[in-house]
Amino acid sequence: MTAFVAGATGLTGRAVVAALRQRGVETRAHVRPDSSRLADWQARFGALGAEVDATPWTLAAMTATFRAHPPTLVFGLLGTTRKRMQAEEASYETVDYGLTVLLADAAVAAGARPRFVYLSSQGVKDGQTAGYLGARARVEAHLRQSGLPWTFARPSFILGDRDEARPGERVGASVADGLLAVARVFGGRKLAERYGSNDNETLAQGLVRVGLDPSFEGRIAEGADLR
Ligand SMILES: NC(=O)c1ccc[n+]([C@@H]2O[C@H](COP(=O)([O-])OP(=O)(O)OC[C@H]3O[C@@H](n4cnc5c(N)ncnc54)[C@H](OP(=O)(O)O)[C@@H]3O)[C@@H](O)[C@H]2O)c1
User: Fold this and answer.
1) Closest Cα to atom 30 of ligand 1
2) Which of 85, 118, 179, 190 sits between 20 and 30 A of 155, alpha carbons compared?
3) How far, in Å, CA of 184 to CA of 58, rounded?
4) SS3 of residue 4 by DSSP
């Protein structure tokens, strides 16, 4: 088992690298080559026994990496935010859709055929095209027709210790969790399990678990499957 984690420096990604190493999975943690914190990540992931991979985001370079180190699992955990879009030239189209699709296309071109575990989102519906959810729906559609084995994860809010403050996420999660706690009292257990927030470490364990579980190939993992 060898895993390649794209978005390894994110809240979910760093926990996925740790969860994979806990299970003894050989892991390459991808860090963008121009990251100002490349040395920090090398130290942090190195301490977990993971290799840091700083392959540039081009199809040719990523294909060469997958040829040299064929993964059996690829985690697609990338995403930008509205705030980051303003700070760097990025969009849901170029990052959430573009880089994830590039990763899948590189795996196909390399003939690697890994299971692609894609961190999508609660609320994604087939056929959506616009905005954040539309980018995710189109990634899912691309993966379905790519020929790669896939698992999509659709959690609700993800919480944890972030490097940056995201008050909207915390408020959204506590409002949703509060409403769901009420719903649970009135028999809405399934609703609460599906739409309740996930903390990043529990989510990471869930992503690795479904990624390694043959019964989740070609399936969507909802919030409850990931806890
Ligand atoms: N937060 C939620 O409540 C929630 C719920 C469901 C789904 N999701 C989705 O799940 C995914 C992971 O969530 P998260 O909270 O773990 O995300 P996160 O902490 O914001 O991490 C995002 C990752 O994407 C990378 N990235 C962002 N912009 C990039 C760019 N222009 N080029 C290359 N890499 C880039 C980041 O790299 P750097 O560290 O180098 O910037 C980081 O590794 C995201 O797509 C998110 O939208 C989030």
Assistant:
1) 95
2) 85
3) 47
4) strand
CA–CA–CA angle 18, 106, 211 (5° rounding): 35
Instruction: Kindly indicate the confidence band of residue 186, based on its pLDDT and cuts at 50, 70 and 90.
Output: low
pLDDT of residue 195: 78
Name the residue among 37, 79, 71, 30 with its Cα closest to residue 53.
30
Q: Which atom, in ligand 1's list, is nearest to the CA of 79?
A: 45
> Between the CA of residue 9 and those of 13, 62, 93, 133, 211, what are the distances in Å?
6, 18, 20, 22, 19
Q: Is the pLDDT of residue 192 over 90?
A: no
Q: How far is CA 100 from CA 42, 76, 118, in A?
A: 23, 6, 8
Radius of gyration of the chain (CA): 17
Q: How many angstroms is it from 78 CA to the middle of ligand 1? A: 4
What's phi and psi for 158, nearest 5 deg?
-110, 125
**Residues of 173-194 as b/e, b for ≥16 C-beta within 10 angstroms?**
beebbeebeebeeeebeeebbb
CATH 3.40.50.10380 at 2-159+199-226, yes or no: no
Within 67-183, strands assigned E span 73-76, 115-119, 150-154, 158-159
pTM of the model: 0.93
Rounded Cα distance, 209 and 41, in Å: 24
Q: 158 is written with which tokens? A: 């993800």
